[in-house]
Design goal:
The chain is an all-alpha fold. It contains four helices and no strands.
Length: about 100
């Protein structure tokens, strides 16, 4: 029997895919909520979180810390897409 046919492997894969889906849902909810904050508050929060990433205990491991930073960047990208369009010149420039 191949490892691909192992029911336990299939269950682990299913659990991982469900966890990934849950992660994406939380990511979207968070991005939409953050996108509603005033820009100054949002910028301050993200700077604070980036600083926190710099101060994380190295014993967490490089991969976890890199994942933390990657997720912050991913959320920031999603917030930009979730923000309501602004009017005027600034709004047009942001959409370019």
């Amino acid at each position: 029997m191949s490892w691909k046919d192992d029911d336990r492997i299939k269950e682990i894969e299913k659990a991982l895919l469900r966890a990934e889906g849950a992660h994406y849902a939380l990511h979207d909810v968070l991005a939409r909520a953050l996108g509603r904050l005033p820009t100054a508050d949002y910028d301050q929060l993200m700077r604070s979180l980036a600083k926190q990433a710099d101060d994380l205990d190295p014993r967490l491991g490089a991969d976890r810390i890199a994942g933390y930073r990657d997720e912050l960047a991913s959320i920031a990208d999603e917030v930009e897409h979730a923000r309501p369009p602004t009017s005027g010149l600034l709004g047009r420039l942001r959409r370019i």
